Each structure stands twice: as C-alpha cells, then as structure tokens.
Amino acid sequence: MSNHLENQVRTCDTTGLPVCLNAQKFIRLHGVCAVVFLLIGAVAAILLALTRWPAVHLLNAEWYYRVLTLHGLNMLIFWILFIEVAILYFAATTLLNSRLFSKGVAWAAFLMMIVGAIMVDTVVFQGKADVLMTSYTPLKADPMFYLGIILVAVGTLTGVFNFFATVYIAKRDKTYEGSVPLVVFGAIAAAVIAVVTLLHGAVVMIPTWFWSMGWAEAPDPGWYRLVWWGLGHQSQQVNVCAMVSVWYLLATLTTGAKPLNQAVCRTAFVLYILFINLASAHHLLVDPGVGASWKIWNTSYAMYLAVLASMIHGFTVPASVEVAQRARGYVRGLFSWLTNAPWKNPGFSAFFLSLIIFGFIGGITGVTLGTQQINILAHNTLRIPGHFHATVVGGTTLAFMGLIYYVVPLIFQKEFYARSVATIQPYIFAAGITLMSIGMSFAGSAGVPRRHWDVEFAGANLAAGFDSGTHLWLGIMGMGGVLAFVGLLTFILLTVAAVFFGKSNKGRAMTPWATPKSLVTEGDAEAAHDERSPGTMVLVIVLLAAFVVYYFANWLALTDVWHVR
Amino acid sequence: MSIHIPEKDWFKAPTGGERVWIALSLVWCLIMFIMMPVWHFKGKQNSTGEAYRVEPAQFMARVQQSIQTQSVGEENGVPIVQPPPGGDAYLLGQMWRWQPILKLKKDQSYRLHVSSLDLQHGFSLLPVNMNFHILPGYDHVLTITPTQTGEYQVICNEFCGIGHHLMTGKIIVE
C-alpha cells in the first residue's frame, strides 16, 4: 500500500520505482545548492594548493587563512550536508514507496540551511571570521558566523526530523512489508549519528555565540575542543555511514550486486551507531587535561569496534560485486570478475575507486594516526589532512560523484553531455586526490604543519625550515591538488550542463552507462550461482598486510623520538 | 538487492570467507587496542595529558622568574635559559613567539611546563617531529628526556592569527 497523494508521484521510467514529487523537488534543490558549495570549495582548494606548493606560494597570509576557512566550511559542512539531506529524502521516499512527510518542514529545513550557509560565507569573505573551520576559542569571529553555523545545524536537524517522520509514516501506512532495504538502514544509521553530532554542535556553538555577543564568558578552550570535535569528527562519521550506504546502492545500480549477508551488513552499521561517537578523542590525543586511559579507550572507539565495522563493509561490498560478476560468467582466475567490471561506467569507477582510496589510504592512516602515542608524530602536521582527504574526498566525495551520475538522469531526468569525458572524470579526480594525499602525508612525516602559510618561516626571529626532500613532497601535493581540481571542475561542468541544459529523458529510460555484459544465459547464471568470493579475500588480505606494516612502522618511528611522559 | 526489501529470513550467521574475515579483523582490532596500554607502561613516548590550571599572567610570572634566575645568554633578543637537570623548565607560547630558548642536557629529564598567554598554540619540535597541544589556562607538563644533542626548532602548528608562521623558538641540547 502506498501512501502517495494523488498526482504527487511518478514511476521512474528506468527502474520502475515510485518517486514522490515533493521529495524530488527537494532532492533537486539540495543537490543544486550542494554543487554550488562544492564549486566555492573547489576554487578555494586550488588557491590553497597553489599557496602551500612552496614554489608557487600564491596567496598572501591574510587571504590564505581566509580561503582556508572558506574551504573547510564549504566542503566539509555545506556540500556534504546538503547532499546528505537529499540522500535521506531519497532513501525514505523512493526506497520505502512513501510520500515525503511534510513539504512545509522540508522548506523550513532548506531555508535555515541556505540562509545560514550564505551568512557564514558572507562574513568569511568580509574578513570578519578568519578563525578557520574550527574557530577554536579564544579566537573570536563575528557573531553572525556562529549564528550562521547554528542555523545550518538546526536546519539540518529539521531535515533529519523530516526523514525520520517519513520513515515513521511509511511504517504506519504499511507502504512496505518486512524490514527496510539495506540502503535505508544505512541512511537511518547515518541520521541517528547526525542527530547526536548536531546536538554537540548546538551545545558548543550557542555559548560561543553568546560570548561573541558579549553576554557570557569565553568557553574554556579545552571544553570547547572536546565538544566541538563531537560535532567536527562525528559529522565525518555521518559521511562514512552515508558513503557506505552509497557504495551498496551503486554496487546494485552498476553491477546488480546483492549483499551477501544482510545481518552482517546491518550489524556493522549498528556498530557505527554505538561506537563511532567516541572519536572526538582523535583530536585530543596530545592535549593537556585529559588522561591516558580516557585517550586510549575513546580513541579506539571502545576496542576498535567501529573499525571492525568498516573492515566488514570493506569485505562485503566488493564481495557482493564479485558474486554478481561470477554469476555473469566471469569465473576465470581470481580477478576476471574485477577486470571485466564496468570500468567505463563513472558510477562504478567512482564507487570502486572510492572504496580503494578510503580503505587503503584513508582507513589505514586514520586508525594509525589515531593511535594514542603515535599521534605525537602526527598531531596538527600535514599527515592529518593527508589522511582525511583520502577519507572524505577520495572516499565520500568521490562516492557521491558516482551517485550524482545516476541522480541527474533519474531524479532531474536530464541526460549528460560529453559522456566519454564523464567516463574518465573519476579517474582524474581519484589520481589527483591520491597524489595530493600522499604528498601531504610524507611532508607531514617530516613535521610540516597543517594550516600554515609559510613553511620557510621567512621573517621569523629564530630561523626554522625543512629540507629539499620535504619540498619535493609539497610539490607533489601541489601537483596532485591541481589534477584533483581539474577532475572536480570537470565534474561540476558536466553536472551543471546536464541539469540546466541537458536533454530531457522524461517518458523513457535513461541512456545507460556501460553495463557488464553477461557471458551466460539467465538460466545458467541461476544454476551456477556461487556465494564464494576468493578474489575479494585476496584483496582484503593485501589490505590487512598493508595495514599491519604501516601500523608497526609507525611504532618503530616513535622509538626514535625523545622520551616523554 | 540493497535497495529492495530483504527476504524474510535475512537474519543469519555469517559463513565462509565472510566469517574468516570478521574473525581476522576482530583479532587485529584487539591487537591494536592492546598495543596502547602496553606502550603506556613499557614504552618511552606517551602523552599523559598532565596539566594544571594556571592564569596566563601567573604562568608568565613563572617564566619571567626562570629567565631572571637561570639565564645564560641570549640570541636575537631571546633569553637562553638553562634549567637544572631533573627540575622544572618553562616555555611560553604567545602571538607570535616561543620564549625563552631552553638549553638542556642530553639524557637528563626535565618537567617542561608549556602554556599560552593568549590563543591556542601547537608545540612542534623539529626535526624530531614531536607535537603537543597548548591551551591558555592550562599548564601542560611534559616530562621529557632529550635523546640527541643539537639545536632544535620549536614552531607553532595551531593557527594563531596572521603572524602564525613567524612563531618560532629553539631548544639546544648539549
């Protein structure tokens, strides 16, 4: 039984799924705004890359920190939150065959988010909030800055409420029978974490806003860091959750993959909800005032149970693709399923490259740098952005790009131009971001600080600096940044051209991206169905080996530094 | 399919490769967890977060006192202080310098008190690459033992305003 209102639903011409027209309107609205913020963040990104590349050193100090503030907020908060609210609306309506709970609530959420985001960007451009994304007290910004962030947070919470209300009415109206689909389950997990995250944001930002208005004392800087990272780090865990859901979604859309064991996938999402919230500690590992046992317990998310969850997804996602491909007849050797995957489909390549970059670079470095003692070698160095550009950019943003290659034809009902360019775009972006991340990581290993305008320290009273090898890594970072920017700009141009000027595909199925060809007939595939995934097993063993080597190499490096307690 | 309602009997235990991988992952997670308490007791490099409340002006006074009583010279106008081995050493971060320059002895331990007069700062020792966070109002005590001789730079790696990149200091180990 569907609960759609009359004339407020259409059937997708490609998938046959129902699309609530109200939800579609807000998915489009949020999607367009998300891409605008992505563009602002991208322009900021190239300026930063060209400033931190010592041979170029483009911006002056004032504009470097201003643009850095802008980059963090637009990329990590606005682009991601706008697209995530769109994903939530999609998951709760189309996949549950339900209408959106309320158009009014959706408008309220959207208006608060967009007004807040514009307020923040405006005060940053005016130079009244050169405080970087974290705005650590007692560094003070214009009150409008904090108010804007509070508005974005409350708006997002309102959108999340609309999502939960939609899930509720779908259940009440029995629009589906049994358990929710896996992608919806993942979206619910992301939404639960988002609520906890945004409440932390309110707890820290409201007193800070009061202080900026002169109504209250400055919040304690240690307390501020603890609670702010309850917002700052957990919002990245919302991204992880949303990204993993998108992996499952794209695996299905591009290869027809089916989760091997739903209980395992869902348990892994529950582990995220239970344990991932402890990760605020990752930022406080070399802080004063919090003790060793607090640091050890929290940084490990209670014995790494949230890491276990990611390692499980890291297996089940590629394994589901392998099983689907083997059923198509790609049974030869360990990897013919992978080499014959639809690599010319940008939805698939973006998804699979995201999986690889997130696992092999982002995941391994993140857990290692978040080890209590190893963090002494990494805190506030370029190793940290080297890590998170591999998770949130090479991982989350790349996965969301893959998703958008389907959202535009299916939800906007517009076709892409220059489809062959779209085919190579994920590779350019992935290569750029990987190079940049590696450059940052190696430069950071020499101690190069993050958030720093001049690593030559020109004009400093006591000289400091880095050797030529370190400069080489910074150059690699800069080149990677340029390449990633080219990939990102290509993506934005393709998307904008399709959304605003693309040919409508209303009334017919979308022009398909490359799909895997089947070597066997339908009946044979059923008969040959095999749940084993030996190729994936080899891949994850290689991952684990790389993990072990990197982890212990860092302990070894730690033995070289001065003794400290 | 991940976008469809699962079959009714979806709740079942993992089998085959999936089960092996979950077991392997769990073992690895526990190894990583155990490493930290082990290192806390056996290792030489730990961040215990020892800290005391201190008013910035009060901390400033302690730094001034160490400069008056233990100064052994100066470089570019920055006093060089030689604290007693085994004793307390003070380092003050402010926009945009670290002071004083500290002269330490190799293989001797010091209780290094680091705090800030104004904003948050990052204590980063180069080229050793050791990093600690510094907050105003917190006397962060690092019990350090230099293991190499030479001249080391201290830089700031937490954004502290427009002159952040000018904030440098020095530690000399003999």
What does this structure look like?
The complex is a heterodimer of chains A (565) and B (174). Chain A is mainly alpha-helical. In chain A, 68% of the residues lie in helices and 1% in strands. Chain A has helices at residues 21-52, 61-93, 103-125, 143-172, 182-212, 221-255, 262-275, 292-299, 301-327, 336-339, 346-369, 383-412, 419-445, 468-501, 522-527, 534-558, and strands at residues 9-11, 18-20, 563-564. In chain A, strand 1 (9-11) and strand 2 (18-20) form a beta hairpin. The longest helix of chain A is centred in the middle third of the chain and has 35 residues, at 221-255. Chain B has 174 residues and is of the alpha+beta class. Helix content of chain B is 24%, strand content 37%. Chain B has helices at 16-42, 56-70, and strands spanning 51-53, 71-75, 78-81, 88-94, 97-99, 101-104, 110-116, 121-126, 130-134, 138-145, 150-156, 168-173. In chain B, the strands form two sheets. A seven-stranded mixed beta sheet of chain B has the order 2-3-6-12-11-8-9. A five-stranded mixed beta sheet of chain B has the order 1-10-7-4-5, covered by helices on one side. The relative contact order of chain B is 0.15. The chains are: A mainly alpha (565), B alpha+beta (174). At the A-B interface, helix 2, helix 6, helix 7, helix 8 and helix 9 of A face helix 1, strand 8, strand 9, strand 10 and strand 11 of B.
CATH-defined topology of the domain at 293-455 and 463-560 in chain A: Cytochrome C Oxidase, Chain A
Structural class of chain A: mainly alpha
Q: State the shape of chain A.
A: globular
Report the span from N to C terminus of chain B.
67 Å
Number of strands of chain A: 3
- What does the largest sheet of chain B look like? 7 strands, mixed
What is the CATH superfamily classification of the largest domain in chain B? Cupredoxins -  blue copper proteins
Distance between the termini of chain A: 64 Å
Number of strands of chain B: 12
CATH architecture of the domain at 293-455 and 463-560 in chain A: Up-down Bundle
Mean pLDDT of chain B: 96
Strand order of the largest sheet of chain A: 1-2
Query: How large is the radius of gyration of chain A?
Result: 23 Å
**CATH topology name of the largest domain in chain B:** Immunoglobulin-like
Q: Quickly name the level 1 CATH class of the largest domain in chain B.
A: Mainly Beta
Q: What's the total helix number of chain A?
A: 16
Helix content of chain A: 55-70%
Q: Oligomerization state of this entry?
A: heterodimer
CATH homologous superfamily descriptor of the domain at 293-455 and 463-560 in chain A: Cytochrome c oxidase-like, subunit I domain
